[in-house]
Write a structure and sequence with these properties.
There is one protein chain. By secondary structure, the protein is α+β, with helices and mostly antiparallel strands. It has 2 domains: 2-87; 92-176. Helices cover 40% and strands 28% of the residues. The chain is built from 3 helices and 8 strands; from the N terminus they run αααββββββββ. It has a 4-stranded antiparallel sheet, with no helix packed on it. A 4-stranded antiparallel sheet has the order 5-6-7-8, with no helix packed on it. A hairpin with a 6-residue loop joins strand 7 and strand 8 (175-176). The termini are far apart. The relative contact order is 0.11.
Length: 187
């Protein structure tokens, strides 16, 4: 009976880990490092489920098989996360504007041939730093300028003369609207 109780507790903890992973996928607080929280929660769930099944299994071949399958799942997940992290293209900061505890950052990323620029608003630092997209430019477009209109509003101006204004929610850092122009010659 203690073995079954331990397995139930481990499964409940695995469900909590899955719930935290789901919360980090939804990312209601726009955490900058949410993908790492999701990866860690899934890894923790795999380990907890493996241990729960290993506790239920009697000694011998079945327990060894459960541990091997769990170890393969852990190694596969770590490999998948490592591969995905290698595919992410880090952006270069072009400029930064600060107001209170928030920063507007213009980022440059090499997409295919020409650079593409984006403007994000950041708040905080460390593991709970927040980041939200404000403006996503097209490949080959010149770098935009960004400024705070007031603590809860930002303005992005492109060199072609287009001006985009967005509001920022104070707690979650949600941006409304996020601007993504479709053509270089129109606003």
């Amino acid at each position: 009976m203690p073995r079954l109780r331990s397995a139930v507790i481990l499964m409940a903890l695995a469900l909590v880990a899955v719930g935290l992973g789901g919360l980090s996928v939804m990312d209601p607080f726009h955490l900058r490092h949410a993908r790492w929280y999701t990866s860690g929660a899934v890894l923790l769930a795999i380990v907890l489920v493996t241990v729960a099944f290993a506790v239920v299994a009697r000694r011998g071949l079945l327990r060894g098989l459960v541990v091997v399958v769990g170890a393969v799942a852990v190694v596969g997940w770590v490999g998948l996360v490592w591969l995905a992290s290698q595919l992410v293209n880090d952006s270069t900061e072009v400029s930064e504007t600060a107001a209170d505890d928030r920063r507007l950052v213009v980022l440059e990323a090499r997409v295919i041939i020409d650079p593409a620029y984006a403007v994000v608003v950041r708040s905080g630092s460390g593991p709970f730093a927040q980041e939200s997209l404000v403006y996503q430019g097209l490949e080959g477009a010149p770098a935009p300028a960004a400024r705070f209109v007031d603590p809860d509003s930002v303005e992005v101006t492109t060199p072609t003369g287009c001006t985009y204004r967005s509001d920022i929610e104070a707690v979650t850092l949600a941006v409304s609207p996020v601007h993504r122009p479709f053509r270089l010659d129109t606003c």
